[in-house]
């Protein structure tokens, strides 16, 4: 296992700003969903867990480690002394050792042709990995494990250590999985190819290299996928956008963009607003729980403390996750020492073979500030606001460590008021395990808060009832207004709710959407797995 931080416990989820658009079954859904891979149509009720079928004759995964297929171009040359069969044996043993739902792994014929193509070792291993995931479903009928994934180790190392990714600096969102899809720009990173081209939040994608955003043919989908999530720097694309009308009838904007390494700014916006009652309200956009964001969070909370804010609106609508210790730190900075003393932020629970690995960790009240070797360098007392409630702006892109932040505060009775939509539903995490040039991330643990609650696999729902219902208001992402402007629908709803305690009428000033011609291939706009998962590493 990789270990990069000296603190007792943490979860790293990361980092990639890229998104993927792939063909998938099922109907529509919220824009920006972080779910991975084709997902069958939901069933009306959860399926029972498969009967445990303990594997026979499995040897420890260490017996097969780094014995790579000669055809595996990702593996170090010196390790290509094994075979594809041995790599699959390693994977099956590792699942039995590490996978949270080890007793639900289906019986799979590892010799099947789809897992045995030595001409494409990576695809064979990925297919076998997917076949081993539990088929169980959540209460809503969604796949319970829609997050486990694999990635080439070199790419994983680059994105997690460098904090950059190939792209244009665009956060995409999508209104519908079927045409008209309404693929739009949710935000633009500063000093990125998109910002230099003058692109803006709310611009609607029409075509890429002449391919329609509503394409339905396989070649068109490949081209669209490649453009929305380029896999390398230096790739050129010609985009056509419409501005001022989401149906493509507004101002036409044509621009060429060259993919580049885009640096992430985890906290791009903080400000203090004056509420209708004259009190000071802090507002912060927080997009990624990555190491470089820790100092930015501390600086923001210090500024709010100096301003004497009485409320905080935390904008997590595009935050797919990250370092869990940072979620713990932020929760402490919101709640303060009195409410968090001797309380548990999150407890990690592993599979039946790893009960000794279960552990709990507190609300961290000191900083870490990672150095280049991922070691804590400045363990200083954190500032805090001592708030008894916090407003969280969220939607389907709010995932992983962001949900742990919500759950952790609810576990100590700090009121979380959710404004926006249902979060992604990911109370799980991983540890990177490398073998033969691939990093494997089967879900390894589930997290629960101080009250023992962690059952939010279908997400937290604003203004809902039941275990995952959170007080708040359902409000659409208002792409017609910039983030942080008081008239932006989600922020406006939070500002009004703190005064009246009630949800305002529909505030989103979005555009009407044509529905003629609806149908065709259903698609799903998705983040890179690195941006919507949690990875367990000791701090």
**SS field, number of helical segments:** 10
**Overall CATH architecture of the domain at 269-508:** Alpha-Beta Complex
Q: What is the number of E strands?
A: 27
Which blocks of ≥5 consecutive residues have pLDDT under 50? 1-54, 507-518
Helix proportion range: 10-25%
Task: Describe the protein's architecture and organization.
The chain has helices at residues 84-98, 121-131, 153-162, 193-196, 218-228, 293-307, 324-335, 337-340, 401-410, 489-500; strands at 10-12, 19-23, 149-152, 164-167, 170-174, 183-188, 204-208, 211-212, 236-243, 251-258, 260-263, 269-274, 280-285, 311-315, 344-349, 359-362, 389-394, 415-420, 428-429, 433-435, 438-441, 445-448, 461-462, 469-470, 472-474, 523-527, 535-537. It is built from ten helices and 27 strands. Among the domains are: 62-139, no CATH class; 269-508, 2-enoyl-CoA Hydratase, Chain A, domain 1 (Alpha-Beta Complex). With 539 residues, it is an alpha+beta fold. It is globular. The strands form nine sheets. Strands 12-13-14-17-18-25 form a six-stranded mixed β-sheet, sandwiched between helices. A four-stranded antiparallel β-sheet has the order 8-7-9-10, with helices on one face. Strands 16-15-22-19 form a four-stranded antiparallel β-sheet. Helix 6 runs parallel beside helix 7 (324-335) and helix 7 packs parallel to helix 9.
């Amino acid at each position: 296992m990789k270990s990069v931080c000296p603190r007792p416990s943490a979860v790293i989820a990361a980092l990639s700003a890229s998104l993927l658009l792939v063909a998938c079954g099922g109907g529509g859904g919220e824009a920006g969903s972080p779910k991975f891979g084709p997902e069958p149509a939901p069933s009306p009720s959860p399926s029972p867990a498969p009967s445990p079928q303990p594997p026979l004759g499995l040897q420890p995964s260490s017996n097969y480690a780094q014995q790579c297929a000669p055809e595996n171009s990702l593996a170090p040359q010196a390790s290509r002394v094994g075979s594809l069969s041995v790599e699959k044996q390693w994977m099956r043993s590792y699942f039995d050792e590490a996978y949270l739902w080890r007793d639900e792994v289906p019986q799979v014929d590892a010799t099947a042709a789809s897992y045995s193509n030595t001409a494409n070792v990576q695809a064979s291993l990925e297919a076998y990995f997917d076949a081993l995931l539990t088929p169980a479903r959540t209460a809503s009928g969604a796949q319970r494990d829609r997050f486990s994934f694999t990635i080439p180790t070199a790419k994983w190392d680059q994105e997690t250590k460098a904090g950059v990714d190939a792209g244009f600096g665009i956060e995409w969102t999508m209104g519908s999985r079927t045409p008209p899809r309404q693929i739009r720009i949710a935000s633009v990173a500063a000093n990125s190819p998109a910002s230099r081209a003058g692109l803006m939040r709310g611009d609607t994608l029409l075509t890429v290299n002449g391919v329609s955003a509503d394409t339905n043919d396989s070649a068109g989908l490949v081209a669209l996928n490649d453009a929305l999530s380029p896999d390398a720097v230096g790739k050129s694309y010609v985009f056509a956008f419409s501005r001022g009308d989401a149906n493509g009838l507004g101002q036409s904007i044509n621009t060429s963009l060259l993919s580049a390494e885009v640096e992430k700014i985890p906290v791009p916006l903080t400000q203090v607003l004056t509420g209708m009652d004259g009190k000071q309200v802090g507002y912060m956009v927080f997009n990624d729980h990555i190491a470089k964001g820790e100092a930015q969070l501390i600086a923001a909370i210090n500024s709010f403390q100096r301003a004497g804010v009485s409320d905080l609106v935390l904008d997590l609508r595009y935050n797919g996750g990250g370092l869990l210790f940072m979620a713990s730190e932020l929760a402490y900075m919101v709640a303060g020492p009195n409410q968090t003393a001797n309380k548990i932020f999150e407890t990690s629970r592993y599979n039946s073979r790893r009960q000794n690995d279960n552990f709990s960790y507190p609300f961290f009240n000191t900083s870490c500030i990672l150095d280049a070797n991922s070691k804590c360098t400045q363990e200083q007392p954190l500032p805090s606001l001592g708030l008894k409630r916090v407003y969280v702006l969220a939607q389907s892109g709010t995932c992983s460590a962001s949900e742990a932040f919500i759950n952790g505060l609810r576990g100590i009775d700090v009121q979380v008021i959710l404004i926006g939509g249902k979060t992604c539903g990911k109370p799980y995490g991983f540890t990177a395990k490398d073998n033969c040039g691939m990093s494997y991330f089967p879900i390894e643990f589930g997290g629960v808060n101080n009250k023992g609650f962690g059952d939010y696999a279908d997400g937290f729902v604003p203004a809902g009832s039941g275990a995952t219902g959170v007080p708040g208001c359902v409000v659409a992402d208002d792409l017609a207004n910039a983030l942080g402007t008081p008239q932006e629908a989600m922020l406006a709803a939070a500002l009004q709710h703190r005064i009246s305690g009630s949800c305002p009428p529909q505030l989103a000033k979005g555009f009407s959407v044509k529905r003629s011609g609806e149908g065709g291939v259903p698609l799903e706009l998705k983040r890179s797995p690195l941006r919507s998962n949690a990875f367990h590493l000791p701090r």
